[in-house]
Design a protein that fits this description.
Blueprint (H helix, E strand, L loop, with lengths): L1 H21 L3 E2 L9 H15 L3 H13 L28 H14 L6 H15 L8 E2 L21 H9 L5 H8 L6 E3 L22 H10 L9 E3 L11 H7 L6 H8 L1 H10 L4 H18 L21
Antiparallel strand pairs: 1-2, 3-4
Helix pairs in contact: 2-4, 2-5, 3-5, 7-11, 9-11
The structure holds protoporphyrin IX containing FE (HEM).
The site of protoporphyrin IX containing FE has 25 residues, from α3, α7 and β3.
Length: 322
């Protein structure tokens, strides 16, 4: 017993030092410093989404776009003539005002304590819950970044092959399973006609539509996005359940009713098809499996290139560095 203690003590000390040096997040980081933090974010998100459901997909997508560029450090929220916000793929993001509202309430309740990066991570979870998801515990303790550059914005794109999607996720420490699960975020929200128009009339120069699209669904998409029509018009990514966080998106992929080419390809490729298949099914068990796995992969994504400890800062307002 004595011997064990001697071996364990220095070992634990080294682990503790390493943890402090690297920094890490943990569930309940604000329990003692701002016990109302999570309640405040939740209530702001709840009222915003109740008023306008499109905030839920907006905030979820914003969190993904934050994490994939210089880590989950709220760099997406910074204003500036060449900040991330100004990059093309971010031009339609929605929900900045919701994050700002939560921050302003938190600065009144506990000034200088809660980072914008954590507010965004919590708000993404609360948005999902607000449209029917079951949620997950969000580790907190992120610090806000000091840099935001449009030139660093590179996301997977709607025309990306499965190989490209996998490579881009692997670069962020996420595997193929995480890719298929996180893209399940497309169970809510919409895409502009411009992002998938190439599939509808002249797919890859063939003069015919993408053969992967179901015939009836093609008619629907063509009605929504006529040739020469308004490219900014938006179409539900998960037909028939755009405001419900559920697993029907995966069934739509199987049925040729995926809207984005990148999504639809997840069914054509055997590597991803078998993962998609695992989420299809109308039972409560399938639904809760998706919810559980989504939460798990979101937590993984929320740890990309973390800034913790003494790195970065806690911004006073989310759109400017201090
Ligand atoms: C291969 C990866 C991905 C690609 C290629 C992709 C692409 C896109 C595209 C093109 C849109 C439509 C944008 C527009 O026209 O406004 C979109 C919307 C959206 N994406 Fe993704 N995405 C990917 C992964 C993700 C992930 C990981 C999440 C979250 C976990 C996510 C959440 C969303 C949401 C919620 C919307 C709807 C936004 C709204 O309605 O305001 N996406 N995505």
């Amino acid at each position: 017993m004595e011997v064990h203690t001697h071996i364990k003590t220095p070992f634990l000390f080294v682990v503790l030092l390493a943890t402090l040096a690297l920094g890490s997040t943990r569930v309940g980081f604000y329990n003692t410093t701002c016990s109302q933090a999570e309640t405040i974010v939740r209530s702001v998100v709840e009222s915003a989404v109740r008023l306008n459901q499109t905030f839920a997909p907006g905030i979820l997508q914003m969190f993904f776009h934050d994490c994939f560029v210089s880590g989950c450090d709220a760099s997406i929220l910074l204003d500036g003539s060449s900040s991330e916000k100004t990059a093309g793929p971010n031009s339609l993001l929605k929900g900045f005002e919701v994050i700002d509202a939560a921050k302003s309430m938190l600065e009144t309740a506990c000034p200088g304590v809660v980072s914008c990066a954590d507010i965004l991570a919590l708000a993404a979870r609360d948005s999902v819950v607000q449209v029917g998801g079951t949620g997950w515990a969000v580790p907190t303790g992120r610090r806000d970044g000091l840099v935001s550059l449009a030139s660093e914005v590179t996301f997977p794109g709607p025309k990306d092959s499965v190989d490209d999607q996998i490579v881009k996720f692997v670069k962020k420490g996420l595997n193929t399973k995480d890719l298929v699960i996180l893209v399940g975020g497309h169970t809510i929200g919409r895409a502009s006609c411009t992002t998938f128009h190439h599939r509808l009339y002249n797919y890859s120069g063939t003069n015919v539509p993408d053969p992967a699209i179901d015939h009836t669904f093609l008619r629907h998409l063509r009605t929504m996005c006529p040739e020469g029509g308004d490219g900014a018009r938006r179409v539900a990514l998960d037909t028939d359940s755009v405001n419900n966080f559920d697993n029907s998106f995966y069934g739509n992929l199987r049925d040729g009713r995926g809207v984005l080419e990148s999504d639809s390809l997840l069914w054509s490729d055997p590597r991803t098809q078998k993962i998609v298949q695992g989420f299809i099914g109308g039972s409560r068990r399938h639904q809760s499996k998706f919810n559980k796995m989504f939460g798990r992969s979101m937590v993984k994504m929320s740890k990309i290139e973390l800034k913790t400890g003494k790195q970065g800062e806690i911004r006073r307002v989310c759109n400017k560095i201090n």
